[in-house]
Design a protein that fits this description.
The protein is α/β, with parallel strands linked by helices. Helix content is about 50%, strand content about 10%. The protein has a single domain, classed as Rossmann fold (3-Layer(aba) Sandwich). β3, α6 and β4 form a beta-alpha-beta unit. The relative contact order is 0.20.
């Protein structure tokens, strides 16, 4: 196998253990967005492209047709970004937009292969101060971004290309879970559905209450937002910091 593919295969194998976390993020995101909240996403360079890839899947669609959901890639408003950089400095490019667009209970997803990007770190701090749920996709941990977000998925590789490729796979699984959670809200409630939800360790949707298809997620999003204000991750228990993936560490540029 080519070394590039070997590095990718090893990193994907390590991240596979984080599948339950990605599923929980997808279900939480479905509850927040169906309830009228929004996703903000930020990164630099290739990570900015992946942030926009995710928001495009939510505003557009992933696999099947559905209604659009509110998701904003913070680098994409070039007029705001350049004005903020000019007037307040590059570190404020994302943080100021978080303060403008973010509301309590919304979600901020931060992407950084190094976990050291100053403008992304500032965005995470601004989001936590405003009551947003903060998630990070990073390279190898420990790193500052993983420590400053409520939860983090850290790819155990020093190769930037490998980290970005794994992040894209995570984003696609996140979208798949998001769509699945929306479809589950339209499915009839069965004993198996309840058992599967509890087995997955996701308590945000336990105790189905007979709401209609779309209203079920929206109603539960109210609890999700309330939990966010009180220091809880919707459907995920208390916020957990710097949750890393353990696996083989490859060499190469960081």
């Amino acid at each position: 196998m080519h070394p590039h593919f070997s590095r990718l295969s090893a990193a994907l194998s390590a991240v596979d253990a984080e599948t339950p976390r990605i599923h929980a993020w997808g279900r939480t995101l479905a509850a927040v967005l169906a309830g009228g909240g929004r996703l903000l996403a930020c990164g630099n360079g290739g990570s900015a492209a992946e942030a926009q890839h995710l928001t495009a899947e939510l505003v557009g669609r992933f696999r099947t047709d559905r209604r659009p959901y509110a998701a904003i890639p913070l680098h994409a408003d070039t007029s705001s970004a350049t004005a903020i950089a000019n007037d307040y400095g590059a570190e404020e490019v994302y943080a100021r937009q978080v303060r403008a667009h973010g509301r309590t209970g919304d979600v901020l997803l931060c992407l950084s292969t190094s976990g050291n990007s100053e403008n992304v770190l500032a965005a995470a701090e601004a989001a936590r101060a405003a009551g947003l749920i903060t998630w990070a996709l990073t390279g190898r941990a420990p790193n500052p971004l993983a420590a400053r977000c409520d939860e983090a998925l850290a790819v155990p590789s020093l190769d930037c290309a490998t980290v970005q490729e794994v992040h894209l796979a995570v984003i696609h699984l996140l979208c798949d879970t998001f769509d699945g959670a929306l479809q589950d809200a339209h499915a009839p409630l069965t004993r198996d559905t309840i058992s599967r939800t509890r087995r997955d360790g996701h308590d945000g949707y336990d105790g189905h209450d007979g709401y209609g298809a779309g209203d079920g997620l929206a109603a539960r999003a109210g609890k999700a937002w309330s939990d966010g204000v009180n220091g809880h991750a919707p459907g995920n228990g208390r916020h957990r910091r710097d949750r890393t993936v353990r696996g083989p560490h490859e060499g190469g540029p960081g």
